[in-house]
Amino acid sequence: MAVETRPAEAPGRVLSTLNVDGSRRWIRPRPSPGAGWRRRRVLAYVLMFVFFVIPYLELNGRPLILLDLPAREFSLFGTTFLPTDTLLFMLLFVSTGIGIFLLTTLYGRVWCGWGCPQTVYMEFLFRPIERLLEGGFRGSTRLDRHGAFAGRRPLKYAIYLLLSSFLAHTFLAYFVGIHQLVHWVRGTPGNHPAAFLIMAGTTLAIFIDFTWFREQTCLVACPYGRLQSVLFDRRTLIVAYDPRRGEPRMKGTRPRPAGAGDCIACGMCVRTCPTGIDIRDGLQMECVHCTQCIDACDEIMVKIGQKPGLIRYTNPDELAGLPHRLLRTRVLLYPVALAISLGLFVFFLTSRAATEVTLLRGIGAPYQMDGERVVNQVRLKFSNRNRDERGYHVTLVGVPDAQLVNPLDPFPVPGGHTLTTTVFVLSPRSAFDDGTRHVMFRVEDGHGFGRNYVHPLIGPQDAGHGRARGPETEAEARH
Ligand code: SF4
Ligand code: SF4
Predict the structure, then answer these.
(1) Which of 311, 312, 314, 319 to mutate to test the pocket of ligand 1 (most atoms within 8 A of CB)?
(2) Alpha carbon distance 401, 470 (integer Å)
(3) For 94-118, what is the mean pLDDT?
(4) Which of 139, 236, 339, 461 has the greatest CB tally within 10 Å of its CB?
(5) Domain limits for position 396
């Protein structure tokens, strides 16, 4: 006898975006255009504008922000960071982390609700387009897949794809610079296949995120969302429902049932929530503090003649009727740690050398023979952190038997740039000791910069007996 099997169902909803049968519960929040929403909208469009315009801005002749990964060179607000600036990066990273800790301890998930690109673009760009084209949002929390506006869905997807492509291009401009990006866009994908694939992948990821994944990014993917619980304390600012005022919730407004709290169980705070939760259940990880439930409930409170603020920005102590104390241990310690970390960052940043020279072996064979002379190729990488161009003059010190062939002397490097040149050193075979000889380069820029750099040359293993090996230290070179 055939036994009918049905998928197991949960006794109730486990997650706000999951139906009891395990299928996705699509969230279509009803917008609540109150004071919080209006302020967030202004901030959202300012942030979008800033994001779009930054790749076009320059400071000190460098892009305002350029994260040049292949060159391992970051330009941030007129300052260039090189791979050797590891300590600065670490301090910047630590300062950012402490800053996030402090912000979250004081103001909760203010970043999630007001500044995070996921929220900003979802709620103020993609979702408004969806509402405009597909309609059916008034009072509905379900996607209108078969409604009168369903035929416009392909148009919505086309616009989403265009926007995703635009966002992906802007995002890429932060890594390659706007001029390179324009050059690629004007060319054909075949000329730059890797860049094209990165662009296509980023476009697809953004499209999928805002079309399908949506609030799941905040609920399951974002590590910051998961970190919240350890950063909150009982005086952290949160969006919360006041149960002492709202309970017992009861329907009916005229007249209000005797003994009823202020909550009329209208459900508007749930219908407006972009993550589908009920704020009356208390603080939940899914709450991104977008303030939409505040706006929705305030509107209801005004309508029924009650004071707004049943759902409001508050903290757990205030909700429990305890006195409000702003200062507590972590709120005192975080700023101290932040000041130390930022102070060290500024100190090392301002005491950094304006010129940095790195000597590298040549590409290909370690050396070549020119009769009885050994030819070494040496690459010199100049990082000029000055504002103006510098011409770097390179000489050899203390090795009269060696000859330097420098195709471009002085080697010009524009301010804020890093360039590499190749020079050749010709040494007698007899000058090598066990296949190695140390020589000293001197680099000067004619503006007061001058430093010596010891560099090992490679030669045949059987060559020389160290008779004219050359200086191994700067002190040796001076004698
Ligand atoms: S919007 Fe306000 S009144 Fe309506 S259910 Fe939510 S908390 Fe209660
Ligand atoms: S509970 Fe309120 S503040 Fe939290 S995500 Fe939902 S609507 Fe936004």
Answers:
(1) 311
(2) 9
(3) 94
(4) 236
(5) 355-478
